[in-house]
Amino acid sequence: MELTATVTELRYALDTFFFLISGALVMWMAAGFAMLEAGLVRSKNTTEILTKNIVLYAIACTMFLLVGYNIMYVDNSGGGYLPSFGSLIGTQGEGADHSLESDFFFQVVFVATAMSVVSGAVAERMKLWAFLAFTVVLTGFIYPMEGYWTWGGGFLSEAGFSDFAGSGIVHMAGAAAALSGVILLGARSGKYGKNGSVHPIPGSNMPLATLGTFILWFGWFGFNGGSQLMVSDFENATAVGQIFLNTNAAAAAGAIAALLVCKTTWGKADLTMILNGALAGLVAITADPLSPSPLAAVSVGAVAGAIVVFSIVGFDKIKIDDPVGAISVHGVCGFFGLMVVPLSNADATFGAQLLGAAVIFGWVFGASMVVWAVLKATMGIRVTKEEEMEGMDVHDCGIGAYPEFMTVKQ
């Protein structure tokens, strides 16, 4: 009896530690998003995008603690539509595999990831305080609602929708919120010509963008691996190894596919597209990084890496200005990831996947559009042309990221 209790305690401790380390890896993705976005915006907007990233993480952690986790997981009916709308994280249930606090920590960093998708897409022309106000609503209410419907045991879960680590629940949701904001916000000044021409606006720091991508790639092992939830027995430990392998394989294939598409299309190795290709592979495999064989994971990543290139170009053609390609990476490839799950997972169906994708996108896009519209009508969401020309760093933060390169007025 004593030996059994000791083994149970050791497994509890190991799985709790696994959750915490996985959550710490995902938290480090916040740095990845910050570096990626800082590299892909112009130098005059760098401090502001970094401010957005650290503050959105802080707001996400606070709002999910106060109300979001409770909405998503606590005292909800199975297969339901409306959550309990309580506060804080509830109490530890008997027989748990890991601590409640470790579960909260692992979940909260996913919320911050969803919001990070938005920051890059609306960069260089959105008011800082409007963005932060939206962050409060998305992380506290919009995301937890669809989180309850899926991971929280709501009606989409009951319908058989499958999304292992969040291709749709996290990434496509963030892209849906971003798309609604971009539509109301409009493009950056000078991005599109009257005759349909597209004027590229290069980022300021490719080393930072590359570093950010590597950090995201690294953090994704916690994102997908931790979603197995356990590592304390043979079956789960083996599964985590498979998840790591498939996650890495999909990212690598995505980068290679994007490189080849760029070379065959334009004759150049476009670094920004290669970076987004790797991220596209990661997003796509996230819906199910366990079921596919390694070769299947390579295929999923490669297709996503090719798709993202054409998607970024396509959004530019319809004048949807996304400075970092977030809507394509997380939205289009997130949807692709959801829809290929049934090819390797016999428990998933295309109908359930399509239903889940439609509900998640429809809810997040619609609710976000309402929130953005209210913000636009009240405090406004776009800076003036003069402020956009001068740069968000000076206007919002009062300090430049690279002051030695700034012109000082005497």
Using the alpha-carbon principal axes, give the shape: globular
Q: Mean pLDDT, rounded to whole units? A: 94
The chain-level structural class is mainly alpha
Low-pLDDT segments, ≥5 res: none
CATH architecture grouping: Orthogonal Bundle
Main beta-sheet annotation: none
Radius of gyration: 21 Å
Task: Return the CATH topology.
Answer: Ammonium transporter fold
Order of SSEs: HHHHHHHHHHHHHH
The number of helical elements comes to 14
The percentage of residues in β strands lies in under 5%
Helical content class: 55-70%
Distance between the termini: 80 Å
CATH class: Mainly Alpha
Q: What's the number of structural domains?
A: 1
CATH superfamily: Ammonium transporter AmtB like domains
Total strand segments: 0
Membrane topology: Multi-pass membrane protein
Domain Ammonium transporter AmtB-like: 18-401
Subcellular location: Membrane
GO molecular function, one term: ammonium channel activity
